[in-house]
Amino acid sequence: MSDTNVRRFQRARDEEEQEEDEQSETLVCPECSGSVATDTEHGETVCEDCGLVIEEGEIDRGPEWRAFDAAEKDEKSRVGAPTTNMMHDKGLSTNIGWQDKDAYGNQLSNRQRQKMQRLRTWNERFRTRDSKERNLKQALGEIDRMASALGLPDNVRETSSVIYRRALDENLLPGRSIEGVATASLYAAARQAGTPRSLDEITQVSRVEKDEIARTYRYVVRELGLEVAPADPESYVPRFASDLDLSDEAERRARQLLKSAKEQGIHSGKSPVGLAAAAVYAASLLTNEKVTQSDVSEVANISEVTIRNRYHELLEAEDGITT
Predict the structure, then answer these.
(1) Between the N and C ends of the chain, which has fewer C-beta atoms within 10 Å?
(2) Do 131-224 and 233-322 agree at the fold level?
(3) Could you name the CATH architecture of 233-322?
(4) What residues does each domain of the chain span?
C-alpha cells in the first residue's frame, strides 16, 4: 500500500471516529431525554436513566481476542512492523515468504511451488518498478551490510538512509557510484550520532577506495548542508576500552588525558583516532593493566609509531598541567 493510500485510509477512519463521537455526544434518549451510553460488550446503545435500548447490533472495531496483561496483548497483536527509511519501500509492501509450506505447515506440491515462485518473482518486480527504487534497494542493502559489519546501531542506519534519500532526490549521484554515496552517508551519520568510525575502518567494509569515500563524503556534506562536528577523540575511547577489556578506571584515565591535551591545545591537527588510541594505551600503563602497543594498534587500526608519538605528547600535556 502506498503512502497516499495509507494517509487516505487513516483520514477516512479519523473522520468516521469523529462522526461517531459527535453522534454519541448529541444523542439523547427519545423517551426520557436522559443521557445515553454505549455498551461495547453487547454492542448496544442504552439510556443510563430508563434503560431503553436505542441501538443494537453495532460493529465492534476492536480485536476479537482478550488479553489480561500487556505482554499477552503485545503477543496477540497482529499489526505490521513500523515504517522505516532503511527499506526502499519504507516497509509498506508485502513480502512473500521463502518457505514452501501452507498455513498448516504442510509441504506444497510441485505445481504449487512453481506457482509461488512465479508470484515471488512478480512481487519483486512490482516492488522495484523504476530505476530509483532499484537504486534505493541496492544502496540501503549496502548501508545495512556495512553498518552490521561495523556494529553501528539502528539510529545510525536510519539517519544514513535519510541522507542517501536526500542525495538521490537532489540528483547528487550522477558521476558517482552507488556504493560510494552509500558509504559516505553512513560515515556522516555515524559522526552525527556520536558513534564515529575512522575512515580506515569504513574503507575495510566498503567496496570503494578510501580516496573516493573521502571525496564523496565532502561533496555530500557540502551539497546537503549537513552539520557534522569534528570527531571528538573521547567518542572512540569506550569502544577501544571495551575491545581491549580494560577497566572503568582505565577508561576514566584515558578521558582525563584527552581533556588535558585539549587544554594544552595539542589535539589540533592530530588524528582523533590516534589520540584516542594513545590515551587508552597510556591509561592502561597508568592503571597497571597489561596492554601492548600492538594490541591497541590492531583495535584502532593505526600504526604503532603513531601510538608512540601521541603517547609521549599526551603524557607531556598531563605533566604540564600538574606542574
Answers:
(1) C
(2) yes
(3) Orthogonal Bundle (1.10)
(4) 25-56, 131-224, 233-322
The owner of cell 539510529 is: 155
- Tell me the C-alpha distance between 99 and 187, whole Å: 36
What global pTM score does this model have?
A: 0.64
What is the spatial order of strands in the sheet that 44-47 belongs to? 36-39, 44-47, 53-56
The CA distance from 278 to 312, in Å, is 9
Using CA atoms, how far residue 39 sits from 36, 47, 50, 251, 273, in Å, is 10, 10, 15, 61, 65
Residue ranges in 170-303 assigned as alpha helix (H): 178-192, 199-205, 210-224, 237-243, 248-264, 272-286, 293-300
Asked whether residue 19 carries a pLDDT value surpassing 70, the answer given is no
The pLDDT-based confidence of 22 (bands split at 50, 70, 90) is: low
The most distant pair of C-alpha atoms in the chain lies apart, rounded to whole Å, by 93
Q: Which fold has domain 131-224?
A: Cyclin A; domain 1 (1.10.472)
